[in-house]
Amino acid sequence: MRKSVWAIAIVCVMFVGCATTQTVSQPPTVDVTGAWSGTYVGSAGSGIMSMTLQQVDANVTGDINISGAPQFSGSLRGIVSGDTLEYNGPGGVAAEMIVKANEMHGLSRFGNRLLLQRQ
User: Fold this and answer.
1) Mean per-residue pLDDT for 51-65?
2) Domain tally for the chain?
3) pLDDT at 11
4) How many angstroms separate the Cα of 85 from the Cα of each of 11, 43, 60, 90?
């Protein structure tokens, strides 16, 4: 009985760890450090958003502010792989963005189209 409890606990920890880990599949080819602002557009509406990001190697930290949605505004963490930024923030906000020079665009976890420019 005791062995099966430990086996279940180990499997649960493995699944939780795999579900929350972002990995770098290739070295970053872009640096997203700085202030970004732009728009989001989705089925529930549209608005203004901004991010202030710090990148060290492939790791990104910073803040996100989404107009009219304080539950999705606050600290974020992400990772850059090639020219792609993936981030997770408060309230389950997350997105995958393609970065080209001073612009990034992509889709949020909620299906919103995002377009931001470096400030």
Assistant:
1) 98
2) 1
3) 34
4) 29, 23, 9, 17
